[in-house]
Specification:
With 578 residues, this protein is α+β, with helices and mostly antiparallel strands. It is 54% helix and 21% strand. The chain has five domains: 161 residues, 2-Layer Sandwich (Beta-Lactamase), CATH 3.30.450; 49 residues, no CATH class; 87 residues, PAS domain (Beta-Lactamase), CATH 3.30.450.20; 50 residues; 149 residues, Histidine kinase-like ATPase, C-terminal domain (Heat Shock Protein 90, 2-Layer Sandwich), CATH 3.30.565. It binds adenosine-5'-diphosphate.
């Protein structure tokens, strides 16, 4: 049972019952006493009226001795005090005191009224007897003339003595009722607080995780309803909890089967969820609750978490961990302001890639020498073959040139793709650099009847970059523009915005159909194979452009309309590396 609630309810009842009983007793005693006084007053009045004729003649005759003995005699019989006062207020007779020793009574309220011909009553302290008395005074006289006043009085003490028994009775009955009420209150408090106590205990059990706690109450009423609702609620919570834990188990099962490492970090970088895959990667089973950097300290991972949190968006990064290479993707978890990391092992893929790259580099190097030799001998043969032979020699030379171009481009690309590629950063004036490139192309442009011009604003066009590689970018772009343009020309435009220089290489050539635009930066991707072969393309030029621009933290975009022309826009950060 809930003791404190029980005591509180009981204390409330006790206070109310005691207060009510006390008040009721007090008020009822006072009412009864007042009523008794009223009855006594009326009795005294009737007594005074009855005695008046007896005193009337003695007063008329001015016989104080007779008046006094009459007062004493009648006072004894009526058990009351009888006083006679003359019209001046002097006491002539008194049944309890010596009138000669009594002071003038003219100012006594009951006497004053009686002298005016009315019945005067008063309840007050008697200076003569030094106790509380109830007085009733009536005028005595004839034909409207007041000869004196007859006053009858009664000790208040005697009234109180008469009421004492009644008071005791009231007190006993009141106490009896109060005790009965208190027993009722005790029983009610107990019956009210017991179910509440049961509910409290059951709630505590539920809070501690025991969903089998139930409150079984007999009878009806609101508390029973409350208990039933509690039981229903606990049932629902139990089933919801069950569903939730089933789901969570299912989820844990799924997360556990993922071979990749899975990590969920909170705002501070603390691991709030991880899977066995991650434990395998870091070789630590107990990672939950630790900071991710306590488990594995890799700058690349720090960087990934930082960028994902800062951008509040997904980002991907290769992260070396324990001698293997992983592809980590970070996703922002907006509900917790945290990060979800998925760590996929790409070591084998990387090894394969390296083997492939090494193979290409080795092959390209191996091909370079024989190709140079073939080209040399072709030059030698040129003067010695017949006219027919010249034709075949031309075909051989074209194919040899194409092969040599592919080999060169492959070598450049391999070098760029090598993660250790270093840029030789210096101040490069884009305008001068492009002017030099244009200069190289001038004979070809002229030969093909095209036009080429460079448009640059007034401001400086200096960037920090690798001169040789940037040159390669514009050679490739302008070479393509010239290659794929039959008529019209090429315009190179240099502009700048707040943070970048923008170089647009725009031609009026064949254009590129929409469906190819997203793939033309891939290695060996050509839109029209026969045309590409004819113009000596390798399908590697734009890959090289893209790599170099990315190394400069820039971007390259293309927009084109088939039949009208193509525009490649290169963006290079103005302040990069400066
Ligand atoms: P390629 O050596 O074949 O030119 P690139 O990588 O430089 O290889 O270009 C890939 C393909 O994109 C080309 O085969 C060509 O079809 C298309 N392309 C590139 N630049 C242009 C251009 N300025 N106009 C039309 N097509 C172009």
């Amino acid at each position: 049972m809930n003791r404190s609630l029980f005591l509180k309810i009981l204390a409330g009842f006790v206070i109310v019952i005691v207060a009510m009983a006390g008040l009721t007793l007090l008020l009822s005693y006072r009412t009864i006493r007042n009523h008794h006084l009223e009855t006594q007053r009326e009795g005294l009045r009737l007594l005074a009226m009855g005695l008046r004729p007896a005193f009337s003649s003695a007063l008329a005759e001015h016989d104080p001795a007779r008046l006094d003995s009459l007062a004493k005699d009648l006072g004894l019989h009526t058990n009351s005090r009888i006083t006679v006062v003359d019209p001046e207020g002097s006491v002539i007779a008194d049944s309890w005191s010596n009138p000669a020793e009594m002071e003038n009574h003219r100012t006594r309220p009951e006497i004053m009224r009686a002298l005016r011909g009315e019945v005067g009553t008063s309840l007050r302290y008697s200076a003569t007897l030094q106790e509380d008395l109830l007085y009733v005074a009536v005028p005595v006289g004839r034909e409207g003339y007041v000869d004196g006043v007859l006053r009858v009085s009664l000790r208040l003490e005697s009234i109180d003595v008469a009421l004492a028994g009644l008071r005791n009775d009231i007190l006993i009955i009141g106490s009896f009722v109060a005790i009965l009420s208190l027993i009722g209150a005790l029983l009610f408090s107990r019956s009210f607080s017991r179910p509440i106590g049961q509910l409290t205990a059951a709630s505590r059990r539920v809070a501690a995780g025991d969903f089998d706690a139930r409150v079984l109450l007999k009878g009806g009423g609101e508390v029973k309803e409350l208990a039933d609702s509690f039981n229903y609620m606990t049932d629902r919570v139990k089933s919801l909890f069950g569903e939730l834990s089933d789901k969570s188990e299912e989820l844990n099962g799924v997360v556990g089967t993922i071979q990749d490492g899975l990590l969920v970090l909170d705002k501070e970088g603390r691991i709030i969820l991880s899977n066995p895959g991650f434990a395998r990667i870091v070789g630590d089973e107990a990672v939950n609750g630790k900071f991710y950097w306590e488990v594995t300290r890799v700058p690349e991972l720090d960087e990934l978490v930082r960028t994902t949190t800062a951008r509040r968006a997904s980002s991907v990064r290769e992260v070396p961990l324990g001698g293997r290479m992983y592809l980590c993707s970070g996703d922002f978890l907006s509900s917790r302001e945290g990060v979800v990391l998925l760590i996929h092992d790409i070591t084998d893929m990387k090894n394969m890639e390296k083997v492939k790259k090494d193979f290409i580099v080795n092959l390209s190097h191996e091909l370079r020498t024989p190709l140079t030799a073939i080209k040399g001998f072709l030059e030698t043969l040129q003067d010695e073959v017949t006219v027919d032979g010249q034709h075949y020699l031309g075909i051989v030379r074209r194919h040899t040139d194409r092969l040599a171009n592919i080999v060169e481009d492959l070598l450049v690309l391999s070098e760029l793709e090598d993660s250790g590629t270093e840029l030789h950063i210096e101040k490069v004036d884009l305008k001068h650099l492009i002017e030099d490139v244009i200069h190289v192309f001038e004979p070809r442009v002229r030969e093909r009847g095209l036009e080429m011009k460079l448009e640059a604003g007034e401001g400086g066009t200096v960037v920090s970059g690798d001169r040789f590689k940037l040159e390669q970018v514009f050679i490739n772009l302008i070479d393509n523009a010239v290659k794929y343009t039959e008529q019209g020309g090429v315009v190179i435009r240099i502009t700048a915005d707040d943070a970048n220089f923008l170089v647009a290489v725009e031609d009026t050539g064949t254009g590129i159909p929409e469906e190819h635009l997203s793939r033309i930066f891939e290695r060996f991707y050509v839109v029209d194979k026969s045309r590409s072969k004819k113009v000596g393309g390798t399908g590697l030029g734009l890959s090289i452009v893209k790599h170099i621009i990315l190394l400069h933290s820039g971007t390259v975009n293309v927009d084109s309309e088939p039949g009208k022309g193509t525009r490649f826009t290169v963006t290079i950060p103005a302040s990069q590396h400066s």
